[in-house]
Amino acid sequence: MRPRFEKAPLYPKVFSGTCSFAPPGESRLATPNVCPKCGFTNQPGWTFCTNCGSPIPPSGGAWAAPPSPGVPAPGQPPAAPYPAYPGYPPPIYGPPPWEAERQKQIQRTKTGVLLLLVGSLINWIPFIGGLGGFLILIGAILVIVGRKAFGAEHRRNVVISILLYVVGLIAIVSAVAIVFFTALTGIPQGASRPVVAAALQSAITTSLYVVVAGGIIIGVARVLFTYALQDRLGKILLWAAYGATIGILIALVILALPFVPAVADDLARQVTTGVTNFDATRLSALLDGQTTGTAILNVVPSLLYAAAAYLAWDRINKGVIPAQAAPPVMPGTMPPMSPPAPPINPV
């Protein structure tokens, strides 16, 4: 008679490669294993879901929640962080690329506004005013480069400001050139000095008016440049500085008008005889704003612009602006679906 052998109980292998043995007297093979995460029904005895790989709690107990990716368990060394993939949540080890670029733009704008502040403070000083203008130029370039991080309104204002500034400069240069060209070509051959002086006087006076008009356009450009970065007080300071700048420019033109006939007569004498003895340095000083009186007047708009720049810089430094940005929508991803509409005639 052949010996009788009992079959050893078969236990299925688990997903992780280890075995799960049922305690004596407990039939785990008959207990269905439903994954608590995806709801997939696994074979009895499996400790990991074959569909999603999540751990399956044993009957009568529950698994502890696994630690987050990259967060080490107590007493364990930190795990290597997951790499960044498009469309995934921001990794714990640093910002995603789009956020890093946004922070660079914020820092550029912050530095640019600070340079605008320093340049405005020293721009009115006669001997170092050129340095202030250079700092304002560098600061404006940085603000232009970092404009995208501060919203659509600021981007639009910066573009409009650049266009107005270029239009103002071109209008001044081209209009003055046209006025003098028209005046000189309209003088008849062999005209007397009074006729030449009258034509030149009209050209110079018109050019001064053109400078005022161009200054009004350029002043609006300077106001709009940081307008979206300001709070209510900063916007008031910008418009106050603009009004003070236009007022000083008009005052300079009024101060220069009495010297226009003498300058025109001197130029006419030079044209007709080639002799000149008129000193126009005082008129140049008035137009450049470098005399004592006009330099003191320029303090007012300079301080107002500097105060507005400080308010904008302080808002950026404290994180008031810009607002927190949402991650960009990756190409090929579906937009979020709207909730279903309620039934028309609910029962």
Compose a concise summary of this entry.
The protein is an all-alpha fold and 347 residues long. The chain has helices spanning 97-122, 129-145, 151-185, 193-225, 232-256, 260-273, 281-288, 292-317; strands spanning 33-34, 41-42. The radius of gyration is 39 Å and the shape is elongated.
Task: Walk me through what this model shows.
By secondary structure, this protein is mostly helical. The protein is 53% helix and 1% strand. It has two domains: 8-58, no CATH class; 103-317, no CATH class. Strands 1-2 form a two-stranded antiparallel ribbon. A hairpin with a 6-residue loop joins strand 1 (33-34) and strand 2. Mean pLDDT is 78; it is low at 11-23, 25-30 and 81-88.
Our measurement of the CA-to-CA distance between the termini, rounded to an integer number of angstroms, reads 76 Å
- Which spans of ≥5 residues are poorly predicted at pLDDT below 50? 11-23, 25-30, 81-88
Beta-strand segment tally: 2
Structural class, from secondary structure content?
A: mainly alpha
The spatial strand order of the largest sheet comes to: 1-2
Percentage of residues in strands: under 5%
Number of structural domains = 2
Taking the sheet with the most strands, its summary is: 2 strands, antiparallel
Q: Please work out how many helical segments DSSP would assign.
A: 8
Which oligomerization state do the chains in this entry correspond to? single chain
Average pLDDT level: 78
Helix-strand sequence: EEHHHHHHHH
Radius of gyration, in angstroms, nearest whole number: 39 Å
Shape: elongated
Helical coverage, percent range: 40-55%
